[in-house]
Amino acid sequence: MNAREEVLARLRSASVAGNPATPVVVTREYATTGQLAPGSAEVLARLDETLTDYKATVTRVATTDDVPGAVAAFLGGARTVVVPSGLPEAWLAAYDGEVRRDGPPLSVDELDAVDAVVTGAAVAIADTGTFVLASAASDQGRRAITLVPDHHVCVIRAADVVCSVPEAVTRLDPSAPLTFVSGPSATSDIELDRVEGVHGPRRLDVVLVGP
């Protein structure tokens, strides 16, 4: 027996010894819920805290009637805004700039020329300061519209805020592209210096709707 055959023989022997005929039952007692109730005032406060830690700016409003004013305040001097095809028109009622709906889809050059994008969110995760955009949702749209513009304004409803990642996953459809957003786009890969706007917007603003 040469060295190669000896090594392979030992691997086969170890494999057989480590795989008994009766499968080992692995206990999977994973946490499926967080410590805070979805949509509660406590979970919204936690999301506000974690988003702010990620350098996002958060404005809290009580009802959807307050959304237009908050969105317009965030957009400020933005001259042009792109929105998904199904974004509620009421959210932009107080904005006096040009609104471009992504339907038919705008080109990358056209997206690069707009000042900001406004979307909704499928779900937000309080523990991680993350919200998720589902491309199949009409108020969130395809991934490109939130990666090319330099400024992203996202409206998150209280009913869509959960505490933990497992809770969020159960609400998502994995058959369509999903984008997980935790603060403005940034990297510290080069000499640990933080650089923002590498693969997405440099500025992230959130309108959080709820108590």
The largest sheet, given as strand count, sense and whether it forms a barrel, is:
6 strands, parallel
What is the third-level CATH name, the topology? Rossmann fold
Strand order of the largest sheet: 1-12-7-4-2-3
CATH superfamily: NagB/RpiA/CoA transferase-like
The count of strands amounts to 12
Q: Report the mean per-residue pLDDT as an integer.
A: 90
Overall structural class, as computed from helix and strand content, comes to: alpha/beta
Query: What's the level 1 CATH class?
Result: Alpha Beta
What order do the helices and strands follow?
HHEHEEHEEEHEEHEEEE
What's the architecture, going by CATH?
3-Layer(aba) Sandwich
State the domain count: 1
**CA-CA gap between termini:** 75 Å
Number of H/I helices? 6
Task: Please state roughly what percent of the residues sit in beta strands, choosing from under 5%, 5-15%, 15-25%, 25-35%, 35-45% or over 45%.
Answer: 15-25%
The dominant shape is elongated
What would you report as the Rg, rounded to the nearest angstrom? 23 Å
- Binned, the helix content reads 10-25%
Which segments are poorly predicted (pLDDT under 50) over 5 or more consecutive residues? none
Task: Describe the overall structure.
With 211 residues, this protein is of the alpha/beta class. It has a single domain, classed as NagB/RpiA/CoA transferase-like (Rossmann fold, 3-Layer(aba) Sandwich), CATH 3.40.50. 25% of the residues lie in helices and 23% in strands. The strands form 3 sheets. A 6-stranded parallel β-sheet has the order 1-12-7-4-2-3, with helices on both faces. A 4-stranded mixed β-sheet has the order 8-5-6-9. β5 and β6 form a beta hairpin. The radius of gyration is 23 Å and the shape is elongated. The N and C termini lie far apart (75 Å).
